[in-house]
Specification:
Number of helices: 10
Radius of gyration: 18 Å
Low-confidence stretches: none
Strand content: under 5%
Largest sheet: none
Shape: globular
Oligomer: single chain
């Protein structure tokens, strides 16, 4: 029994390691599938925000669709890596967006669970919760392709995320969510900007030191 469990554990570890280094593997069909899935998610995400977009100045549109933007960044980075035109700074930028907005969405859905998981919305937001969990997980094989990040790349990523925070909670472009304790949501979002960047930076430093 113990030998069987050890074998299963090793197989799970090997699978997780292979997925974490997906873009260095030979699973080209899986990469293509993820590109298609994320492109479909991007299109649906833009459609999900349609009412907010129609009610907003078009200049603000790129700052409203945070999550579908993140999936679109994944598509671009995956295509660049696939075509051997990898850009580490943009990969870092995409990974930080995916981690931040994936975690943000899951946290907000749980914080306002009485609203989002009400019977009439349960299926939709259960699906959205799961897809945003995968958004965070997809950042792992992306960031594992990064060799180094320039100061310029770090500054652009940090600035973009903070600009989004400013517009979301000062100008008011944040997604349509219950306004309960919106100040605390704003603080959480800004902290998440720092957390997402530091998580990826720390994981890269740890990987490079091993």
């Amino acid at each position: 029994m113990s030998c069987t469990l050890e074998k299963v554990r090793l197989e799970i570890y090997e699978l997780a390691n292979e997925l974490a280094n997906l873009f260095q593997s030979r699973h080209q069909n899986l990469i293509k599938l993820l590109i298609v899935i994320n492109l479909a998610g991007t299109i649906y995400g833009w459609y999900y925000y349609r009412f907010q977009l129609m009610a907003s100045n078009p200049l603000f549109w790129p700052l409203i669709t945070d999550c579908p933007n993140a999936t679109f960044f994944f598509v671009i980075v995956a295509l660049l890596i696939y075509s051997k035109k990898k850009n580490d700074d943009f990969t870092f930028f995409a990974s930080a967006n995916m981690v931040k907005y994936g975690i943000w969405t899951m946290a907000i859905l749980m914080y306002h669970r009485d609203y989002f998981f009400a019977p009439e919305r349960y299926l939709l937001y259960s699906g959205i919760f799961v897809t945003h969990l995968f958004l965070v997980l997809e950042a792992i094989p992306l960031k594992n392709t990064i060799s180094s990040i320039s100061e310029r790349g770090l500054a652009i990523t940090f600035s973009w995320l903070l600009i989004n925070d400013f517009f979301d909670y000062v100008v008011g472009t944040h997604p349509y969510i219950p306004e309960k304790n919106i100040r605390y949501v704003a603080i959480f979002t800004v902290l998440l900007t720092f957390t997402a960047i530091l998580l990826i930076k720390f994981s890269l430093k740890t990987r490079n030191n091993n």
